[in-house]
Amino acid sequence: MPVEHIQVASKPQSPLYSPLRLKDYDISPLHGFLPTEQPLRRLPDPYYEPWERIMDKFNSYLLGHHIRRLARKMPVLGTDRLKTREERRRAFVVLSFMAHAFVWGRNGAASEPASEFLPPSISIPWVAVSDILQLNPVVCCAAVCHWNWQILDENAKEPMSLDNLGTLHTFSGSMDESWFYLVTVAIEAKCASGLSAILDAMDGIECNDMDSVTGSLGRIAASLHEANAILERMYEHCDPYVFYWKIREFLAGWENMAEAGLPYGVLYEGVDDTDTFSLDNWQSLLRRFRKYAGGSAAQTPLLQAFDIALGIKHYPTGKRGKQSSVVEARARLHEQQGISEPPPANSYLVQMRNYMPGRHRQFLEDLAATCMIREYVLLACSDSVFAQQFTEDSNDPRVRLRQAYNRCLSMMKAFRDKHIMIVTRYIIAPARSGPAAVLPSVPPMSSQIVPPEEQTRARIAQLNLGSRPLPGGRLGGDSLPADPTMYPQTNKALGPSVSSETRAKSVPMAINGTTKARLARTVDDDDTVIRGTGGTDAIQFLKQVRNETAQTML
User: Fold this and answer.
1) Cα–Cα distance between 106 and 114 in angstroms, integer?
2) Nearest-CA neighbor of 7 among 328, 334, 309, 394?
3) DSSP state string for 322-345
4) Which of 103, 316, 368, 381 has the greatest number of CB atoms lying within 10 Å of its CB?
5) Over the stretch 408-440, which tens digit does the pLDDT of each residue have?
6) Is the pLDDT of residue 486 over 50?
């Protein structure tokens, strides 16, 4: 049947339709959501040398438990001298690594708690540059993957191939951690062609060019096939034991992390505690603590872009929904003139968009409002086409269209199957088996968000908080730099001095244990929930997302 006789063109040509352009969303045709040029290895302005000098020996400082001491002495640097987008990204990466090393790195004692306070030297510029980039101030996929890579041989045949990439920074200094990040980087680069194909498919739909749409879907499927092949290589150089016990903790955020020692989240000193309030009222102070999810694969816009393009609907975890039908597709195309609200989405996936750069988040929103690939396939293919078994040599363009669409979904499902296998091997299995040598256990933390006054006093007495500095900056000891006149904003940020004893009386600190009170920990056999660094029940979430992908096939 000639293409022009297939009744899909009843969709009116909307005067509001405007083709999306990748460059308008800071998306590279060559590298996708990665920068076109390699990320900066160092900030060029000598003003930022206090940051870069720490990063020069970052792994050694972290290994020797010097990060907290150095961060407390580091001046508060302004962000107004970050002139370019690349410099702001570099600043975000540097501050993200320093912040998570400060919170989770401890000072050496196995029983020392994670820090519930970030010093102003980190928190103030980190929040400022995050606001400019329009993402949350916490380690995310952009910090450790998208803006943290380098090309080893720029003359290589495939410069962005996995074997030709290196990281700029890691927490552990291990090959395992580098490989973990670089697999994601290589997938992002390889799927750049798939993003261009999505926009080409949308243009083909607007022109009712079925062959063009089918060809674009074929390119999407090809990019996803290559992404699957790269993901399978995770096992080559990333050991599950090293990842779970040595790397994973640093990628955690401070949401749903009571078991890891952060029941209230983290206070960003100099940002959220600058207005007047009584430190005697610790409940008021606790409301200033921030809670953010940690690094998660859900924070890359790539998979969400493919989900949106293919019409895959994800519902809140634990709830079942249905994929769009022909009736719903017709309603969207005809009654709403091609304009509609984004489809229902899993609340966690929507939340993860706040951990993406602002322009990438806007791309997903605009794509959801304008992309109608699934609707086009549903209306193009009659019931007789849906009833047919696939035949590779079919001459019917509608059959080829359906095949191409389902091939994309098969590749997405395969990718998510592999992701579940990785999570099982790198998180679930190590959590069940435990470390090589488990440290002595300690009594579990109270599950109460606000401990009773008597329990608070007991904790303070046990930790001897009044006689030793607490983790943190302004309230924790030697915060001032050697020459405060060089960075005057440091003194302004520090504000009135508050003693450690005052803080101890004001805020009930969580007692942090050893193995049990950390993100990477052994779980009992009857524990049914093992959370990812993003704070979710990892397996339940991933299985539901995988199943919803499979249910979208036509």
Assistant:
1) 6
2) 334
3) ----HHHHHIIIIITTT--PPPP-
4) 103
5) 999 999 999 999 999 999 999 998 887 764 333
6) no
